[in-house]
Hints:
- By secondary structure, the protein is an alpha+beta fold.
- Helices cover 34% and strands 14% of the residues.
- The chain has helices spanning 6-16, 70-73, 76-84, 105-114, 169-172, 203-218, 224-239, 247-259, 264-277; strands at residues 21-25, 29-30, 87-90, 97-102, 119-122, 127-132, 138-142, 145-148, 154-155, 165-166.
- Strand 1 and strand 2 (29-30) form a beta hairpin.
- The chain is globular and about 65 Å long.
- The termini are far apart.
Amino acid sequence: MTSTPTALRTALDLAAHGIPSLPLREGKVPFGNCPTCAHNVCGGRPNMKAPGSCTCPAPCHGWAAATTDHGVINSPTWARAWHEAAAVAYHPGGAGVTVVDLDNAEAIAWARASLPATRTVPTTRGEHWLYLGPMQSANAVQPGVDIKSMMAYARWLGPGTGTMTVLPAVVRALPVKEPTAVRPAAVSVPAPAGGGQCPHRTPTYLDRGIAMAEQRITAAREAVHATVYRTFLAVLSTHGRCGCLTDAHTARLFTAAQAKGETARHCTDAWTNALNTLGLSHV
């Protein structure tokens, strides 16, 4: 009789407690990739594809592969991954928690002086501080400090010790950047082709359109990256040639996207792709 791999037993136990997990290979890297996602062309984000366009059954999408479904975890397509797994990871946001990943002693000292006490988990070089509640993930919010929650994975190193504190405002504020960081200077709106005047009714039309675009992004429950791109495309197709878009307008769109977990780079790429699609990159 073949014994159940330790990683698989851990994943099944986590699933029973509502914690989505996935196997990691050496180097803390997710397993992959299916032919559709070869060389991680999807960026570890299946929602970048059109709904239903990826049918891969294996855990090759990073955090998005994490699951609590025993049928998937025990499926033949995952069997090899569990036997070869070097560790187990979980999706903190999917479990309703946020991990403040402290990578060294200096980062731990900063956390003890700056953050409310909460449950802690020892890591190889530092500690994970766990707070109750999800938020956007972000890297390098402080020297040696990362935030892992939505659209991210963290190694499972045990339940930790101490009482978990509700996610405080001081942690939620850590990823917030200066306004200039929302829309990189390299991304620009095409030069006005209509003398700086919007020919589409009145300025109120633009303001209402930007508000609707923000709402569309905020309301996305899946395919977030695709929604952001389509929204940028719609805004630029209407206002990209008349010169009425300002940095304040595009900053609002980028801020809405980043609040849904998009990185500044993803926002920049989506904006640039929309410009290219509409032939506006050289207007």
